[in-house]
Design brief:
Major facilitator superfamily MFS_1, two-stranded antiparallel sheet, mainly alpha, Atg22-like, 17 helices, 457 residues, transport
């Protein structure tokens, strides 16, 4: 496992603390956010609306009533993610501004993580028509995940010099996929053997949701112990008053001067589009497999396990490609593969497992690499002293908090009654993201931000 060890210029203690927070939160992202909760919440909502769970041949067409609006049960989880991200657009930048001024970044990060882990653990109580409780817990979990990731991503700049960030970011993502793989494998065994364990399938799913929350909370103690707090550096001076008031002032100044960093802004907009596509593919994959293609939960979990296993090596491989060709070119190559994936997904035959597994392998190859390199590439474009605040803007489109993609997916499904046109509609996000990213001049953006130029970009 030497290829996962810390680069020579990075403190080993902090490297492990940083990497194992990806390990910690991936239990929630994979088991809850990717595989189990969206289809489970859909089933609970369908039972509440129609008195039964919908099938491919006989879908539930009775809407839920929420604030006077008719919401299709099959779209509920995606609309919750949309609302959570819209709230995040207001909340996360303030979190980032506070983190940049705080001498206790790791405490702030872990506090959000433990709150999210508590919400994730409480999903064990979502049953017997409690779809509203499920929607609330999903909202809290996603908001806390995004908030913790704002602070976490900014720590990358603190612990790794420019030439090592691609490696550190890629290896941390690889640890995340390894952790997600292990927990999901355990949950696969529980769900598959639920009869032998004396559990209903619903009970097995809820027990798996509980395990994801406990995993997230427990392993967050590793970064809490190993990461160092640092005094704020290069903070933009704004007015007096409390830290919160100064943070709002810093946020206002950043938004006013963002146009002074055109390459940073262009990268951020490109990332918003292509990452919305990535996150939506991840979050809807289990629902698409169950509701559109007719696969059982065990098949879906096994497929995601395959994705996790391949993604572990994909993240490492993309990191090595970036050392040779630069992160910018490597990310663009990954986006081309993503476009091919969603087009192929539209034509997947029902109940044919081999094509479904082949698409899972393709997703695994590009999944971790594009995300890890995007994080390290963006870190090069951020002015000193505003890392967490800029990463808060970045997190508006990060995993579990995408909103344009889930909104489009939910609307297309509600209008057509099918998930097939909804999945292919996501290709637009990769096309727009690739076009915008191709126009980013990384060298110019790094110089504009006043940062040290890495050897290869």
């Amino acid at each position: 496992m030497g290829f996962l060890s810390a680069p020579a210029a990075v403190d080993k203690r902090e490297y492990w603390g940083f990497s194992l927070y990806d390990w910690a939160n991936s239990g929630y992202v994979t088991t809850t956010g990717t595989v189990l909760f969206a289809p489970y919440l859909t089933s609970v909502a369908e039972t509440a609306a129609c008195g039964r769970v919908g099938t491919t041949d006989d879908p539930c067409r009775t809407n839920l009533e929420i604030l006077g609006l008719g919401i299709a049960p099959g779209s509920l989880a995606f609309y919750v993610v949309t609302v959570a991200t819209l709230v995040s657009a207001l909340f996360l930048p303030v979190v980032g501004a506070i983190a940049d001024r705080s001498p206790r970044k790791k405490v702030l990060m872990c506090g959000f993580a433990w709150t999210g882990a508590l919400a994730a653990s409480c999903m064990v109580f979502v049953t017997d028509g409690r779809w509203a409780l499920g929607a609330l817990l999903l909202f809290i979990g996603n908001l806390c995940l995004g908030s913790s990731m704002v602070v976490y991503d900014s720590i990358l700049v603190d612990i790794a010099p420019p030439d090592d960030r691609d490696d550190v970011s890629s290896r941390a993502w690889a640890f995340g996929y390894l952790g997600g793989f292990i927990l999901l494998a355990i949950n696969l065994a529980v769900v598959t053997a639920h009869d032998a364990l004396g559990l209903s399938q619903g009970d097995a799913v809820r027990l798996s949701l509980l395990s994801a929350g406990l995993w997230w909370g427990f392993f967050t103690f590793v970064p809490f112990v190993k990461l160092r707090n640092r005094p704020p550096a290069g903070v933009v001076p704004v007015g007096g008053g409390s830290m919160v008031r100064q943070s709002f002032g810093q946020l206002g100044a950043t938004l006013r001067h963002l146009r002074s960093y055109p390459m940073t802004l262009l990268f951020l907009v490109a990332y918003l589009f292509f990452n919305d596509g990535i996150q939506t593919v991840i979050s809807v994959s289990s629902t698409y497999g169950e509701k559109q293609l007719g696969f059982e939960t065990q098949v879906l979990i096994a497929t995601i396990l395959l994705v996790q296993f391949v993604a572990f090596f994909g993240a490492i491989g993309f990191g090595r490609f970036a050392r040779r060709y630069g992160s910018h070119r490597t990310i663009m190559g990954g986006l081309v593969v993503w476009m091919a994936i969603v087009v192929a997904g539209f034509g997947l035959p029902e109940r044919q497992i081999v094509p479904f597994l082949a698409m899972g392998v393709a997703i695994g190859i590009v999944l971790g690499g594009t995300q890890a390199l995007s994080r390290s590439a963006y870190s090069q474009l951020i002015p000193k002293g505003r890392e967490a605040e800029y990463f808060s803007l970045y997190q508006a489109g990060e995993r579990g908090t995408s909103w344009l993609g889930t909104l489009v997916f939910g609307l297309v499904h509600q209008l057509t009654g099918s998930y097939r046109p909804a999945i292919v509609a996501l290709g637009l996000f990769f096309v727009v993201g690739l076009v915008l990213l191709s126009r980013v001049d990384m060298r110019r953006g790094i110089a504009e931000a006043g940062n040290t130029q890495p050897t290869i970009v």
